[in-house]
Amino acid sequence: MPDDTTEVPPLLRLRGVSKSFGPVQALTGVDLDVPGGAVTALAGDNGAGKSTLIKCIAGIHAPDQGEMFWEGVRVHLHTPADAAALGIQTVYQDLALCDNLDIVQNMFLGRERVRRGQLDDVSMEQAAAATLTDLAVTTVRSVRQQVASLSGGQRQSVAIAKAVLWESKLVVMDEPTAALGVAQTRMVLDLVRTLARRGHAVLLISHNLVDVMAVSDQVAVMRHGRVVDVRPRDRIDERILVDLMTTGTSDREVSANARGTDLEGRVVP
């Protein structure tokens, strides 16, 4: 009989991933599991290695050492097309949208649908509208709006919907709320949670600790090119997160353990 206790592998697993650029060691022995249907926040100070790591995942940089497993199978990503073929889509901070094109044209840019030798505008418009609706994006007036007319939050929503449209299993998001106002930030964070509820894995890179604590299911902390800790959201708070980012350890947590209390001062049985 099959063993029902067999562990289901994470969607993405990194083991011992290292990357250097000349004398600069950007990543050293990175281990990270990214499960499906959850938001994994990647936190760290400037220069911690976050951008290099996501570029390795996106197929832009090839690691010098280490292994990458996708749904339990070892893979080698040499180009962004390799990553996209697996279902990995990355939304960078600059969004890579064309202001002079409308939402539909942006979402299908480079992958236009053709029918009988002509662009299938009806099919593309329907697919774009359906994707936005499925993600509960309600602030866009029309999928034929030019991107130049959209707010920062709406642009971010279009970029995310574009990633989802191409059957992504993992959406990597680089600083999605940078330079957004309060209302726009809330809209984007709601969209991140919607992605997880729809079964997508999300790898969220953010300097905003409030955002990290608000939407993540687990938090991975990087420092000096290493992942120093990975833990569920309910086992971390902002003070511990700052400690881990700046020193790699948490004095507060060590003190709590020594006292036999939790982080709120309650006695641990």
Protein model, in words:
- This protein is an alpha/beta fold and 269 residues long.
- The protein folds into two domains: 12-236, 3-Layer(aba) Sandwich (Rossmann fold), CATH 3.40.50; 237-269, no CATH class.
- The chain is 33% helix and 25% strand.
- The protein has nine helices and twelve strands.
- It has helices at residues 50-57, 80-86, 103-107, 121-134, 152-165, 182-197, 209-215, 238-247, 251-259, and strands spanning 12-21, 24-34, 39-43, 65-70, 73-75, 88-91, 114-115, 118-119, 170-174, 201-205, 218-223, 226-232.
- The protein has a six-stranded mixed beta sheet, with helices on both faces. The protein has a four-stranded antiparallel beta sheet with strand order 2-1-4-5, covered by helices on one side.
- β11 and β12 form a beta hairpin.
- α4 (121-134) crosses α5 (152-165) and α5 packs parallel to α6.
- The radius of gyration is 20 Å and the shape is globular.
- The two termini are 39 Å apart.
- The relative contact order is 0.16.
- The model has no long low-confidence stretch (mean pLDDT 89).
Strand percent estimate: 15-25%
Biggest sheet strand order reads: 6-9-10-3-11-12
> What would you give as the CATH superfamily of the largest domain?
P-loop containing nucleotide triphosphate hydrolases
Distance between the termini: 39 Å
